[in-house]
């Protein structure tokens, strides 16, 4: 991995920080590539989403939509929280990212009022998958009344926004403004500490299993 050759990188592996759709891309990188020691996934999905993922002749299909569960609110904003099928359903197992292959630790940060999708459910499924494969040491932090976009502290709360995947429709991303702001401050204190814990050490970062 190119980043590991840079003089700024002191650890045997790099860290990945991701949010929303980039979450499943980060999970895939940690699962299929070498040289990843720590991965932060903020309100991400445990399955591949939107587009097929191609890697060395393998194709991971996207988790199917459940468009019949998307509804319009009284204001005209779309509620899409139930707009994806359940990754845990037997017919969707091929879309789930095999994070048990990863040789890194994960921090899953999720919001209880995430309007984009069911990030709390996805984190629960990921932790169970890791536990079932004997992978310990990953963490989950839950912000019960925060919304989808947990960005850097003091960024404006994004309660609604245009969603490019849905043809630029306006959707509800959820979250109580005050609780969301506090969650952003807390999370962005946790993230550098997580990276220090898992990157600033002598742990060998080998191949994904």
UniProtKB/TrEMBL annotation:
GO terms for biological process: acyl-CoA metabolic process; fatty acid metabolic process. Residues 2-200 form the BAAT/Acyl-CoA thioester hydrolase C-terminal domain. Pfam families: BAAT_C. GO terms for molecular function: fatty acyl-CoA hydrolase activity. PANTHER family: ACYL-COENZYME A THIOESTERASE 6, ACYL-COENZYME A THIOESTERASE-RELATED. This is BAAT/Acyl-CoA thioester hydrolase C-terminal domain-containing protein.
């Amino acid at each position: 991995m190119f980043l590991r050759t840079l003089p700024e990188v002191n650890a045997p592996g790099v860290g990945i920080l991701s949010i929303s759709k980039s979450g499943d891309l980060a999970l895939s990188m940690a699962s299929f590539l070498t040289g990843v020691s720590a991965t932060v996934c903020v309100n991400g999905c445990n399955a591949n989403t939107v587009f097929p993922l191609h890697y060395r002749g393998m194709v991971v299909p996207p988790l199917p939509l459940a468009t019949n569960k998307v509804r319009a609110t009284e204001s005209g904003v779309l509620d899409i929280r139930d707009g994806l099928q359940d990754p845990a359903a037997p017919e969707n197992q091929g879309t789930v990212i095999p994070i048990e292959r990863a040789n890194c630790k994960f921090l899953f940060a999720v919001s209880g009022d995430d309007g984009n999708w069911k990030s709390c459910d996805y984190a629960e499924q990921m932790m169970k998958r890791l536990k079932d494969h004997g992978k310990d040491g990953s963490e989950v932090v839950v912000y019960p009344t925060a919304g989808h976009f947990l960005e850097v502290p003091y960024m404006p709360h994004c309660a609604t926004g245009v969603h490019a995947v849905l043809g630029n429709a306006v959707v509800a991303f959820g979250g109580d403004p005050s609780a969301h702001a506090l969650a952003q401050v807390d999370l962005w204190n946790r993230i550098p500490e997580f990276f220090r814990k898992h990157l600033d050490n002598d742990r060998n970062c080998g191949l994904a299993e």
